[in-house]
Amino acid sequence: MSLNTFTSKPLSIHLQGAPHTYPIHIQPGGLPFLGQLLLQTGLPQGQNCFIVTDEGVPHLYIQQAEQSLTSAGFHSTTHTVLQGEMAKSLPVLEQLYRAALEQGMTRHGIFIALGGGIPGDLTGFLASSFYRGAHFVQIPTTLLAQVDSSVGGKVAINFGEVKNCVGAFKQPDLVCIDPNTLQTLSPRELRAGLAELFKYALIEFSALAVEESTLPASSPLGGPWLLDVLETHGSQWLDVLPFLIQRACEIKAAVVMRDEKEQFPLLDERGRVCLNLGHTFGHAYESVLGYNTLLHGEAVAVGTLCAVIAQRSLLGDAAVARILTLMDTLQLIPYEALRALTALPELEALLAVMTKDKKNRDVQHVRLILPVLPLGKVQVVERPTSDILPWLSSAHAYLIERMNATKC
Ligand SMILES: NC(=O)c1ccc[n+]([C@@H]2O[C@H](COP(=O)([O-])OP(=O)(O)OC[C@H]3O[C@@H](n4cnc5c(N)ncnc54)[C@H](O)[C@@H]3O)[C@@H](O)[C@H]2O)c1
Ligand SMILES: [Zn+2]
């Protein structure tokens, strides 16, 4: 399979035990055909479409979406919210409910998220709660949203200090991914999305429930393993972007189809929990540094580093070096992030957040998803809280070393 000339095909998610199946359409240059896709998906012509986007999403994409909906016979209006986590809030949601009623939206109307994970999570929750559930379409335009948040049905807003406190499972009717929209995304946002993509490379074996003890030469999905593709292309990874996006969506879809609502046994790494690799550590960094300092993907990259350090003796030097070299080549922890991370005054604050993680059974243990050999496999473990601080210190020392090397 030539990955450079790879052309994607629509993926389909069939959720077990639910009447819901939905397509994920990945097509460079596909956004101007949105209206046609809605019709192909069976969404009724003539319906009201309520587009939610944010101030940072280029106007061109809004225009393309609106024009295509109008030519396909839909009525559409666009509602632009603030950029950033503040948009995932009750006051913004209330404004959107009001606007939706004014526009005459009913439960047959179609809510469309156009933008990154923030409009995606917000619009999804709006769609899940409006008249107990209306239609919902995702048009992700950040890499993070294209490989992660637009697939899988978790939607939420923040409440008080708690991120994603009020939410629901709301599977979309359609996910329309146009990788060309990433051309306007900042390099920093792009690399933050790449960090989530890298996570899929480290969980691919478990996520696809491959049982062999050695990694077969090729993926059951066809073609090479994601880790091999990332290593082969290294800093030129954008050359195979449509393949990378499709593979990430396929891996996430496989996990979601098996365990839509996170009901697998807590320590079974084939459940939705495997998607949390790097996240328990990562959330602690996000929380201690404040949510505006690191991008989510950067926090996940640091979390992945910590998870690798925690498994150092089990993985062995060669595997650890392999992961760290690739993270470095892909620049998953950029200089801006390194500066903030190495200025952290005390690592105990990270530990305090980790002990409160909702996955934990008690305060003496932290539940973690950690890589094992062969790379691509993970395990879910409970480790005593006292083990964590030395790992955080090693990660800190490594980050300082990286920062000094980057400065030179
Ligand atoms: N639901 C899930 O399963 C899930 C999974 C992971 C993350 N999330 C959520 O996703 C959110 C983060 O998403 P994100 O990283 O996409 O952030 P985001 O939505 O804030 O987008 C990042 C920035 O990029 C801008 N932008 C979007 N598309 C652009 C484009 N094509 N060109 C130029 N600029 C563009 C936006 O205006 C924004 O300022 C968090 O709230 C997180 O909790 C949800
Ligand atoms: Zn994440």
Give a brief description:
By secondary structure, the chain is an alpha/beta fold.
C-alpha geometry: globular
Strand order of the largest sheet: 1-2-9-6-5-3-4
For the secondary structure, the number of strands is 11
Percent helix? 40-55%
What are the distinct ligands in this entry?
nicotinamide-adenine-dinucleotide, zinc ion
Report how far the terminal alpha carbons are from each other. 40 Å
Mean pLDDT: 92
| Main beta-sheet strand count, sense and barrel state | 7 strands, mixed
H/E topology pattern? EEHEHEHEHEHEEEHHHHHHHHEEH
Sheet/helix structural class: alpha/beta
Low-confidence stretches: none
Number of helical stretches of at least 4 residues: 14
Strand content: 15-25%
**Rounded Rg:** 21 Å
Could you characterize what this model shows?
It is a single chain. The protein has 408 residues and is α/β, with parallel strands linked by helices. Helices cover 44% and strands 17% of the residues. Helix 10 packs across helix 14. The longest helix is centred in the middle third of the chain and has 21 residues, at 187-207. The mean pLDDT is 92. The structure holds nicotinamide-adenine-dinucleotide and zinc ion. Zinc ion binds next to helix 10.
List keywords for this structure.
binds nicotinamide-adenine-dinucleotide, about 15% strand, globular, 7-stranded mixed beta sheet, about 400 residues, binds zinc ion, about 45% helix, 14 helices, alpha/beta
